[in-house]
Amino acid sequence: MKYLKLSLFSLALTVICITGICSSTVVATDETQPGNLTFMVSSDLKDLASTWVMEYKQTNPGTQINLIDLPTEGKAIGTMFMVSGSQAEALDAGSWKICLGHQAIVAIISAKNPFLQEIREKGLKAEDFAQIYTVAASREMHPYLVNNPEIISGVAAFTKTNPADITADKVADVAALLSTLKSDPLAIGFCRLSDISNEGEASLTADLRLAPVDKNGNGRLDSFENIYENLASLNRGIWIGKYPDELAGSLFAVSNPAPVDEKALAFLTWISNNGGKFMAGKGFTALNSMEINANLASLALLSSSASLPSSAGNTGLWLYFIITLVIIASIIVLVLVLRGRSSVEGTFHVSRMNQSFNADSVTGPHGYYFDKTHTWAFMEKNGNIRIGIDDFLQHITGSISRVLLKENGTEVRRGEKILTLVKDGKQLSLYAPLSGTIKSRNNILQKNASLLNSDPYTAGWIYEIEPRNWLREIQFMFMGEGYHVWLKEECSRLKSFFETALRQDRNEPGYLILQDGGEIKDHVLADLGPEIWEEFQTTFIDKSR
Fold it and tell me: Which end of the chain has a smaller Cβ tally under 10 Å, C or N?
């Protein structure tokens, strides 16, 4: 209780100091000075970017924003860009970037299609689409697509064919395509998602359906692939990687180095908050709420780090140091409180052995970033990043008996193997959530690997890493409520995995607690054989990279 009172007092003092420094900042900053921002823009985004600039200047007339064409050949010269996904990757690998929107090509069919039920159960593989769109003699369906070079090239890439070999009928626009689909039950057509996405509407009209894609090509539409019930579900599925990459893309703001100019940060913040409403008419779809929040957090971090010492001037500098000291003191007090609770939390984890678990029973502390391969990352006050495994993973594996670690000083890249969990000879390899240099590792785990189960977020940390591309790589991670929403998708994917892996011909026991609504038994992998662990590695963990 004493520590809690001290921490509350420290936090209150922090708020008072922040108020003081913000006041100093307002006095010292002259917002009437005209800004002069320049973005290099790829040709496919020029129309959208021009609309953003025009709309933004209506409420911010003092900011001058120049748009320059990105060269099609030669090196792009500049510091800030608006480009599509492939062009973003071509720029300096160390660049900072945030996603501003998405684009996708989708297939739609008639609700009266005689094969509709079969298609909704099995989906259509890339090979099926290739057959429909290139081999006229064997068609059971009538293929169409909007006569747009981007759509044609996207369909060609997805079906692994030459654009010249696509023999589908091309229609002038989406209105013509929809009219054809409504009149011909055997018609199937590709168009842009933005062409059929109306603000406030989650579904297509009653006479049309989305044609589901069997992404993994196994001849059935698995539950984790079923994102085609409505447009909202499809949008989310595209964002989390359940849709073919050849048919989906994103647009980015890219900067090298990361932007620090307050005018630029204000403009990018406005785009994240308000830019989505102008995208549909330009061929793009807007960010979802979780992506918007991630952008705002990243931009706020840049804004605060850039403005505190300089904009406050000499008057606010001493307040800045006071805030720093108070925050450090608050952290120390809170750590003492958390350490006092750690033994209780550890007992809680152990007590849940052999019970069922779902997304709601998995813990995920606020302030931590979570990667899709079920590792977490947290920035320490010295700027280094601690990483570990999340609570979801330890619920699946059961008690870990050993962990294989890399040595201090090892250079790691995001997505490469970074550690191995061992239980009774069975192994799982996990991947780095970020790039950097290992500064230290938790050697206590060599003697007591079970800390990964009892206390995965504090005592069970694994590495401390000096990051290389922290601000860029956190864009690919989840945080807060976004993590818990994603966990529900992972639990669904986990059920699908076990329904496939634990076939009757393997004589494996039933590990789905169906009488409890299909929840998974806690530590479900613990007693399963090495072949199931290997399959979990390749079809669940590795596919999330």
Answer: N
User: Is-above-0.85 flag for pTM?
Assistant: no
Contacts (Cβ under 8 Å, ≥6 apart) of 454: 345, 346, 347, 349, 350, 460
- For 508, which DSSP code? P
Question: Closest Cα partner for 486 from 242, 296, 285?
Answer: 242
Choosing among 3.50.50.60, 3.40.50.2300, 3.40.190.10, 3.90.1150.10, the CATH entry for 103-248 is: 3.40.190.10
Q: What is the pLDDT of residues 331-376, one digit of tens each?
A: 555 555 445 444 333 333 333 334 667 888 788 888 899 999 999 9
- Give pLDDT tens digits for 8-41: 555 555 544 444 444 443 333 333 344 588 999 9
Dig out the tokens for 533 from the structure: 């662990």
- State residue 385 phi and psi, 5-degree precision: -115, 125
CA distance 447 to 103: 50
Domain residue limits, the chain: 1-33+310-351, 103-248
Tell me, what's the pLDDT at 370?
95
Indicate whether 3 pLDDT > 70: no
Q: Are 377 and 385 in contact (CB under 8 A)?
A: yes
